[in-house]
Design a protein that fits this description.
The complex is a heterodimer of chains A (about 90) and B (about 240). Chain A has about 90 residues and is mostly helical. Chain A has helices at about 1-30, 45-75, and strands spanning about 30-35, 35-40. Classes of the chains: A mainly alpha (about 90), B mainly alpha (about 240).
Amino acid sequence: MKQETLDTLARVREMNRKRYATIQTIWNTDTRRIGGIIIPIDESTKTSQIARINRIFRQNANGAYNALNLDRLEAGLPILENPFKKGT
Amino acid sequence: MNINLKKNLQDLIDEYKADKIIFWAEFKQTLGAFNKEEVRNRYTPVGLSEVVQEANGKMVADLNATCVVYNQSAKALVESAKKSIMPALLGQPNHPADYATRVSNALNFLDRETAESLTDDVAYSILKDFTGDFEQMKLFKRIVESKVGPMVVQDGNTTFPKTFGEYAKADHLIQVFGEIDSIVEIIFTHPKNNYGEGAVVAGVYYSAPDDSYTELANWATLLGLADIVDQAVPGGDA
């Protein structure tokens, strides 16, 4: 159980790092190519893309914490609070 | 048994530091985006200040959530180390059937000794069957101390090394873990200062949270204590 806890938390940290990297890429990308045309990406598109990345990350983190907490409850251990859960 | 608590905690701290630098970059870019003409033109000066502060608040909350994951990871590492070491420290619970009788006999023998006659060798000959049982030795220690006075126990050393050496080492490690627990409770989540890197938006400087000196001192103390644990465990890095 202790190894599962360590592995899950390491996975959440890794997902968080990837999220930051993806958001950086979004900020640093100013154009996109559709066929032969290059279109500029405006700020609102970037903001909505970042919001989507954050939403996907939160879902994944939630899934990881839920699975871990089910096993922790079965093992009689206290659950770990998901700090990325909305409203916390 | 190889615990490697110091290395694992050091790796976690290094990972956190790397994450913090990435966070600062994102913080600057997120807030810096409000300096772009197309964004600024959408708001009045007051409105711009409000949305920037809202974005700032979200970023700080995000960093705090990340810090909680690091805190949980540090606690899990310490718990894991504790669970690996403690059973060996506290001794086996499988006692022989006549254990209570042996304890009673040992108490009788101890009772007959005086402060002068009760040396380390004598105590060892009476208590050698129990040296691996931490709880039992804790009781015997009180009885021996009532005769010979306090046995100085410092950094795992005692004036009765043959008899209480193992006990003193275990007792010292338990105290070290107590200190580790108190530090790890708030590690990474200790209140931060506002001296991190930042961004200027509409003439106002917004700085990202950074770790306080208390936090940095806690890391150093924690690593020092983890080193004591690593060195005290047989087969450790020592």
